Amino acid sequence: MLADPEGNEFCIIEAGNGFLDDTARIGALSCEGTREVGLFWSEALQWPLVWDEGEETAAQSPAGGTKIAWGGPPVAAKGGIEKLRLDLVPSPGSTPGGSGRQRVLHRPDDALSARRGASVSS
Length: 122
Hints:
alpha+beta; 2 domains; 4-stranded mixed sheet
């Protein structure tokens, strides 16, 4: 395990690790979050889960590239500046009302965004 001067961890995974097959130079962004968070982002991004084991999940674009992974509990208490932020924007040629962001965040049963206090502007 390596860390930068601010203490941000950087993991080197040995060659032959199957989890990083079909990824970009940066194999995965590792995030804290439960399986519920991984499912939410998988649907929001319209990226399939490529790892779903126990409480750990990972999503990857259908085109391949870097995976976004959530390690499951225990999730550390939040403090300080959030270091990773995911913003959703419509894909070129998509209609704003049909985007994954609209579909996921505007569902009446979306308890996840309500619990997180998410605000969504149209």
